C-alpha cells in the first residue's frame, strides 16, 4: 500500500508545501511501519496560513461564543466516536502504549467538553463606580491570530489545550505540530473541520521548528505564541516575542521528584513511582525523574522499585500486554543513553537497565529499558537536568527538611509528589515545594484538564494552560465605563473631599 501523503491545511484546503519537500513519519516501535509523508514547509507556507487566519478572524470573532462552543462540542463527539482508531494511530506514530494514547485522546475530549461549557461562561465583572450614574464592567475580547507550537509527547492533548480555548475566545490560529507526531494533529483538526469550524480559522503547517516555528514567531500578524516544549527553545521564543511585545505562554521542561517519607504506605508509593517514572517511557513533562527517600526506608524501598521495574514488559505499544513502549526517536534514545553515561561517570550506582535494547523485535525500534540509578547525590547532573526517558535517580536524605531542599535543587518546577500519612508534613511540603503542581499520596503525573497546569522557575512564564486560566491567556480584558449622568464627571477629582 502506498504511504498516505498528508498535506498542510490552509484556508480549508489541503495543499502541499511550496517547497515541494516532504518527510516520512515512521513508527518508533517498528521503523518498517510508515504512517505517511508530511510536508517540510517553508516561510511562504506560514505566510499563506497566517494570511488565511487573519482573513477568517473578523467573521469568527463575531460568532457568539456559545455558538463557537457548540461547534467544539460537535468536534468532541467526533473524537469520542473515533477514539479507539485515533489512539491506535497515535501509538503507531509516537510509541506510547494504547492505554496511554486512549488517555491522550480522552484528554482532548475532556478539554473540548469543558471548553464547550466555558463558551457560556466567558464572564467579566461588574464593578461599582466611584461616581453616581456611571456603570463599570470588564469584558473579554478575542485577540487575533495565535501561533501554536507543540511537542510530540502528547500529540493530541496538547494541541487541544491550546486550540479549544483559543477558538472559544474568538481567535483564529496557525498550528505547527511536532515533526514526530503530525498525524494526530491532522486528525484532530479534521474533527474540528467536520464539526463546522470555518475555513481559515484553524490552519496547520508541518515542518521544522527552526523554519516553520521561527517564521510563526516572527510574523507581524501573529498576536501571541502558545508554546509547549523544552526550556531552551522556550527562552528563544520569549526573546523574540519580547522584542515584539507579543504575548507568549510557555510550558517547558521538568525534573519532577517523588518524596517517600518513612511513615508512607510503601506499596502505594511503589505503584506511584513505577507509573510516574516509566509511564510513557518517562517522556512526560511531569515524569518522575527523581525518587527522594528517607534513610530509614531507603534500602527496602529501592529494592521494591528495582524488582518491579525489571518486570515491566517493554515492547510495541499496540500489544495490550506491553507496559512500556519505545522512545520516540533514535535521537531521543541517544540523549537518554548519554545521560546514563553521565550518571555512571558521576559515580552513581546503576542498578538496572542502562543500555539500549537491540535484540530480536527490539531491533525494529528505539527501545530502552527501565533504568535506575541509586546513591545519586543532589548535585549530580542526573539529579538536576531533565532526561526525558525511563531513567530514575534515587537520592537518600536524612529527614523531611532535607527532602524538600533536595527536591527544590533544580532549575525546574513543574510537578512534585510526597507520600506520607502525616498531614502536618504534607501541608508543610505543599507550602515549601517550588513547583506548579504538588500531589500528596499520588504520583507526579495525572493532571486533570479542568485545573490549571504549569510550573514555576524555568518551567514556564507564569501562565497556566488548562482549566479556566487558559481563557485568560487567549483573551484580552476590556474595561468599560458608561456614564449615564448626562454631565462630565471626573474620577478622583469630583470625589475628593477637602
Ligand atoms: P522542543 O523544544 O525540542 O520542541 C518543541 C517544538 O518547538 C517542536 O514543535 C519544535 O519543532 C519547535 N521548535 C524547535 N525549535 C524552534 C524554534 N527555534 N522556533 C520555534 N519553534 C521551534 O521539545 P520536544 O523535544 O518536542 O518536547 C520535549 C520537551 O517538551 C521537554 O523538555 C518537555 O519537558 C517539554 N514538555 C513540556 C510540557 C509542559 O506542559 N510543561 C508538556 C510536554 C512537553
Ligand atoms: Mn513518528
UniProtKB/TrEMBL annotation:
Question: Where's the Aldehyde dehydrogenase domain?
Answer: 15-480
Task: Give the active-site positions.
Answer: 251
Which Pfam families is this protein grouped with? Aldedh (PF00171)
Q: Which residues cross the membrane?
A: none
- Could you tell me the keywords of this UniProt record? Oxidoreductase
State the signal peptide span.
none
CDD domains named in the record? ALDH_AldH-CAJ73105
InterPro entries (alphabetical): Ald_DH/histidinol_DH, Ald_DH_C, Ald_DH_CS_CYS, Ald_DH_CS_GLU, Ald_DH_N, Aldehyde_DH_dom
One GO MF term attached to the UniProt entry:
oxidoreductase activity, acting on the aldehyde or oxo group of donors, NAD or NADP as acceptor
Q: Does the keyword Oxidoreductase apply?
A: yes
Q: Which PANTHER family match?
A: ALDEHYDE DEHYDROGENASE-RELATED
Q: What family is this?
A: Belongs to the aldehyde dehydrogenase family.
What protein name is recorded for this chain? Aldehyde dehydrogenase family protein
